[in-house]
Amino acid sequence: RYPVAPSGKDSVVIVVAGEALIDLVPQGTGRLAALAPRLGGGPYNTAVALGRLGSRVAFCSRLSRDAFGEALVDGLRAAGVDVSRVQRGAEPTTLAVASVGVAGAAEYAFYAEGTADRLFTAPDALPEGTQAVAFGTCSLVLEPGASAYEKLLRAAAEQGVLTALDPN
């Protein structure tokens, strides 16, 4: 069970749960174009957007303590996102290497084995005043974290908390 306390003036209303990663984006053409790191991941981008819009939002995931993980946490804080539910680990940050395929569409190669976000564990409780939890995307299928997100989703739904699922 995940107890949810009554809503208060400074309480979180929306919790976003899922991965945060670094997109490595080509900065030119050719197979060996330089890659620039960009903060990303569907759930991460959702939390940042909600924070920038002034929503009371918390991010619930597990991030690395490496330089990429620190940049991800800094980005959340800068957007006004509560990071008190972010777990930290020594494992590396997940990387998504972007490229443009022959048809001109974006393609991604994910480097997620042994990364911090894969080791997410379900928290004991949702933040005070949680009214909605949004779940997404790659983290929903990558074990062992996927089972922890499922546990959190089911517990929130059983309590009547609005749940949204973005399978992307």
Walkthrough of the structure:
- With 168 residues, this protein is α/β, with parallel strands linked by helices.
- 22% of the residues lie in helices and 30% in strands.
- The strands form 2 sheets. It has a 5-stranded parallel β-sheet, sandwiched between helices.
- The chain is globular and about 50 Å long.
- Residues 1-8 have low confidence and may be disordered.
Itemize the secondary structure elements and their pairings.
Elements: E1 14-17, E2 21-26, E3 35-40, H1 42-52, E4 57-64, H2 67-78, E5 86-89, E6 95-100, E7 106-111, E8 132-136, H3 145-158, E9 162-166
Parallel strand pairs: 1-4, 1-8, 2-6, 4-5, 8-9
Antiparallel strand pairs: 2-3, 6-7
Which characteristics define this entry?
9 strands; single chain; 3 helices; alpha/beta; 168 residues; 22% helix
TL;DR of this structure?
The chain is of the alpha/beta class and 168 residues long. Helix content is 22%, strand content 30%.
